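User: Please predict the structure of the protein below. I'd like the answer in structure-token form so I can feed it into my own downstream comparison script.

Assistant: Understood. Taking the following sequence of 250 residues as input:
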Amino acid sequence: MAQPQRPGMFGGLMGGIAGFALGGLLGSMLFGGEGGGMGGGFGLLELLLVGGAAFFLFRMLRGRSQPQPAYAGAEGRSASSAEGQGWSSGGSAATMEVPAGVSEIDRGVQHIRGMDASFDPDGFVEFARAAFADVQEGIARRDLTAVQDRLTPQEYARLQAQCDQLRSTRRTNRIERIRIGQAQVTEAWQESGQDWVTVYFAVSLVDYTVDDPTGSVVEGSPTPVDIEEYWTFTRPIGPKPWRLSAIQTA
């Protein structure tokens, strides 16, 4: 932090000179200048001149004695860049330490393993891949009973409602030639007494809907399409069964 600067010898000398000059000006006005005595008078103009000169000299001398402020981020960091690099935006130069090489996913996995040492992200991806295929098959059958134990009650109700609507309109959603090109864990965390894991899927499949009485395609196409989705699974903290909680299109 910068130290306050002292007025020093130069400041004292300037103060003496300024005081002498101000005293001379007052003396000249009070005692009549060239005319001598009190005959010159002391009018409003002289009073204003004296006041202005005194104020100017006071500000000049006071400014020389003020300490220079010490600014946070004096090495060139702006407030935004300091915060972005973990610097405190307060008056201190404290930093927020973050363990090197630990990602948010790794941190979440460690938290989950704290209550379930057997949790393995790679093994979980295999579970998610199987769930993906089985849920699509259930939708094609318009019956999700076989995978109900892998769905939260809310997600089961949402997907089964879609199946019921298909049945009521006498339509069938065909989901065929499923090829999962990529599946990986993208998020892992704990919240409100629950474990949460999100898996990203990049999939090629055929997805179309036919009219049951005629067999004609009413939606989609028998041509393969590429889709990207995020499937989020949850469970109470600990070694308990996982259930699909949400499906979000990427």
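That's the full token string. The helical segments are 8-30, 44-64, 79-84, 104-115, 121-141, 153-168.
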